[in-house]
Amino acid sequence: MKRTMRRQVAAVLAAWLGAPLASCGSADRTITIGFEGRVADRAFECGSNYDGVGRTRSTLTPLDLRFYVHDVRVLTADGEEHPLQLVDDGVWQNGGVAMLDFETGGSCEGGNASTNRALVGTVPGGTGPVTGLRFRLGVPAARNHLDAATAPSPLNLTAMFWGWQAGYKYLRVEGRSTGQPAGFRFHLGATGCSGDARDGTRTCTVPNVPDIALDAFDPARDVVVADLAGLFSTSDIDTDGGGSPG
What we know:
mainly beta, 9-stranded antiparallel β-sheet, 5-stranded mixed β-sheet, 2 helices
């Protein structure tokens, strides 16, 4: 190496070593996504009566509202989509799956006093402000046929498992209506399933995991509203259509 080049390299190294080290990446940023349970413009509450629900304008008395979500993503102002890495908390979030729970025990059925009304996750620190939200309702196919008796929380709740389908209830809504005072159920999960869950061969032809897209969503001021009046707006909740309950 020529003497001039050695001097240049030495000068560059001296300047670099004497300067503050630049960070290779910013720390992850935590984002909280809030959720609310409602029936039209009123807060969800087990045992309360809500009039004018569904095609028959029935009176709904809800008794349960819980659902799973996964594949959560946020949009930023530059139009980029970024996965929200859900923080495993040992109770409500595990392995990218979370459960939102609005029932409070007491007058609610099949639950307990604990509730969960938020998702907590992280994105890389360099991402810009959040301007939109995307997530899938339900449980991913790879985790839909676990053993609820041994699965980690929140996939260990038998109330959220379809024993006869060997899969999870992605959305569980139960209550009473004017025409069905003894109770009715709305349970959403994968259907058209076959194969043995025990050896990992169970598959479903109808996954029923809708992708929810919310634009102009700012987690600092906005919440996701789970509205039962909207869910049942075109349904007749007063009539039993037959088949398996739910």
